[in-house]
Write a structure and sequence with these properties.
By secondary structure, the chain is an alpha+beta fold. It is built from six helices and 13 strands. Helices cover about 15% and strands about 30% of the residues.
């Protein structure tokens, strides 16, 4: 919706769709993907058809210098510039655990809590010069599994499952109901490039998401947000991940080893 909706009211029975903004960098549909029809009907986005540069130009023409001088908010803007680990440990008790290599299960070092690390994040491990990267976590044991490179196959997956999806306009889309499958686009991070995917609808309203290409650091608890053309269809929380490329490669390697057997002499 844009400012135009003020002048062209829609019939009460029509489903209101959430469309991406003209300024893709400032587009907020990712964060609005759980919005209800009731709330969306009462919402207008007067800047939806405008880019940030154009808005700043308008502000300059109208001498709104306080708008022009405002700095962009970046990152976790509400905690300011501070050490993230120290900030978290002010509120949560440390839970020491081990950094464990995903390749050979070797203990590489120790940490103060698995909750301090997100998948894909670089981890500085005491005594090691180079950063390793978090690929998985075991909350029960406190182990944080790490790999030696930022593009390690253990970080890439192409399959995930969500909880029950919140659909913004159609509940769920007619195509998905009819065919039990639907192609659309996916992202799980704001401003992440959209990835083509195929949704498979389950009876409980959850969906399996099969991605056209493996994506780095898919994370349970994040939201899978779906798009079709300009429209944001809705989202569901990621609750389960398929195997990583590394796990699949290890499986294939074991199959090859099992296949290569020396026939006993007769």
């Amino acid at each position: 919706h844009s400012f135009a909706s003020l002048f062209f009211p829609l019939p009460c029975s029509a489903d209101i769709k959430l469309l991406q903004a003209a300024d893709r960098i400032k587009d907020q549909t990712f964060f609005l993907s759980q919005i209800s029809q009731e709330a969306l009907r009462r919402t207008i986005f007067p800047l939806g058809d405008l880019t940030k540069d154009f808005v700043r130009k308008m502000a300059a023409e109208h001498h709104l210098h306080h708008v022009l001088q405002r700095k962009e908010s970046m990152g976790i803007c509400f905690i300011g510039k501070r050490n993230f680990e120290k900030f978290i440990l002010e509120y949560l008790e440390p839970h020491p655990g081990n950094f464990v290599s995903i390749e050979d299960n070797k203990v590489m070092g120790t940490h103060k809590g698995w909750f301090l690390y997100t998948l894909g994040q670089g981890a500085r491990i005491g005594g090691l010069r180079d950063a390793w990267f978090v690929v998985d976590k075991n909350v029960a044991t406190g182990d944080v599994f790490v790999a030696p490179s930022t593009d390690h196959p253990a970080l890439y997956r192409d399959l995930l499952r969500t909880n029950r999806v919140h659909w913004i306009a159609e509940e769920p889309p007619a195509e998905l109901v009819r065919d039990k499958m639907m192609t659309c686009n996916f992202r799980f991070l704001h401003q992440m490039a959209l990835v083509p995917c195929t949704l498979t609808l389950n009876q409980d309203g959850t969906v399996w998401v099969t991605l056209a290409k493996p994506v780095r650091a898919l994370t349970p608890g994040q939201f899978a947000v779906f798009y079709k053309g300009e429209e944001c269809l809705g989202s569901g929380k990621i609750v389960r991940l398929g195997p990583s490329l590394y796990t699949l490669q290890q499986g294939k390697n074991r199959e090859k080893t099992d296949d290569v057997r020396v026939e006993p002499a007769t």
